[in-house]
Amino acid sequence: MMTIGIDIGGTNIKYGLVDDAGHVSHRGNLVTADYHTIPGLVSDLHNRLADVLAAFPVRGIGIGAPNANYHTGNIEHAANLQWTGIVPVAQPFSETFGVPCALTNDANAAALGEMKFGMARGMNDFIVITLGTGVGSGIVSNGQLVAGHDGFAGELGHCVIIRGGRLHHRTGLRGTLESYASATGVVETAREMMENDHAGSGLRSVPLSELTSRKIFEAAQRGDKLATEVFKFTGQVLGEALAIFVHFSSPEAIIFFGGLAHAGDLLMKPVREAMEANLLQNFKGKVKLLQSSLPEADAAILGAASLV
Amino acid sequence: MMTIGIDIGGTNIKYGLVDDAGHVSHRGNLVTADYHTIPGLVSDLHNRLADVLAAFPVRGIGIGAPNANYHTGNIEHAANLQWTGIVPVAQPFSETFGVPCALTNDANAAALGEMKFGMARGMNDFIVITLGTGVGSGIVSNGQLVAGHDGFAGELGHCVIIRGGRLHHRTGLRGTLESYASATGVVETAREMMENDHAGSGLRSVPLSELTSRKIFEAAQRGDKLATEVFKFTGQVLGEALAIFVHFSSPEAIIFFGGLAHAGDLLMKPVREAMEANLLQNFKGKVKLLQSSLPEADAAILGAASLV
Lengths: 308, 308
Prior knowledge:
Shape of chain A: globular
Number of helices of chain A: 10
Structural class of chain A: alpha/beta
Distance between the termini of chain A: 12 Å
Oligomer: homodimer
Largest sheet of chain A: 5 strands, mixed
């Protein structure tokens, strides 16, 4: 049987039909800003999928979206979406399509995708960390998503790792994981290091406004010392954070997804060292650090579909 | 039906019969050092309980013990017990008594006790933190104990909260929660403050070797400024740690158990302030901080019995 997977982002809404082996077909893409209300989106999608729904039995709809509440099926106060306040989503989808609908945030969906189709197959206890513009997380314990009392658990990017550290502008918190271990954080670290350290670096020829984590990564690959230090520091902060998470839920693996996850050993070597150095003896050498194997283009749709 | 609850500690082994309402009867106490092997303990306990077992139907045995592995039923490498290496416990109990036996560490048992008989009745997502000589924790998510991949999850006392902070001698880790928010940590903080701050304090008349967290608490209650600062700092570190834990599992409540939990507002006011200051907007004002209501003398037995 097939499942509809929908990934609602600030810019695009991607959808597709997912079979039990994790193959995505009948993909489509909508522009988020075109839809002023959820019922408008639901009815448009239902029309677009009419032929598909007639041809295939569908067991349900899974949706990944920012600020999605797993318990209520609503999107609640999402800063990056035009739907303000608390917006019912699962209910209108379920009513119009006549099948169950569940939603959760994108990082939780990623975790379920890894469990059903990716690196976490057969695992009951693991954490997925998305290292992109921000740092997201999805946690599975006892084979179940850790959703928390209010449906909003798994905000590991907002844990303070360095007391009184760098200000994270959107949240007002200081020293959170996201302010260091995101693409944005990597650029900020490079900027700080260039300010405080007067050693030469190829990065100095890049205008600050054009500095990206990719350019820093490429410089580090060419052996640029400062760029290498940036990844070393980033990895250290991330590794210290992971040690905390391991003491919490003792996962079999931590799986990385997103742009920075491709930095390989440049990031992962310091991550592992810092994590191991901050673990109780009991946990040392036990936790696998893995990179997601899901195809980047389909991961969000696969994850959303895994909800059902 | 009744359950046997057993609490294995470094000094004493306490046991009792627990009914469905959480009343403990037929209590007993053994000296841990008297038992060189688990089978010896099992057979002695079976003899002592022979009359009880003949009179009451018993559904199972629950055991709380240090370094207990929930998944395997073994005690593994417990530093404070004379049984070295990996020692089967659930199996010999189960075989001799003819009923199921489960074991977990004392803080996990406390969490299950709170869920069945205490402040967490009706809750599916909460954390119990024991503030004693050390800092222990038991985490419940989706109504289930977070045991982790290896059965050893929930070591929140060993999370690093202050990078490069105070050395925790037993583990070799620096800046962990336990090195600040335990009875031992409170004494250490007072010692440091007296060394670095030359203000007068009633605590200065107490010989350092006789300084206890209780004496510091009593001084604070009398209005001693330095003693009050000790609790303020302790609460701040604990509150910062709680914010991390809330971002992880979004619990409905955090329940405190053990000696320091009785310090009341002196500790809890700074705890709440620091926690709230370090939370995402989404979580602010939502998490209940509660004190355990289980009778101190029975809590460990009740918790252990709740395992079955």
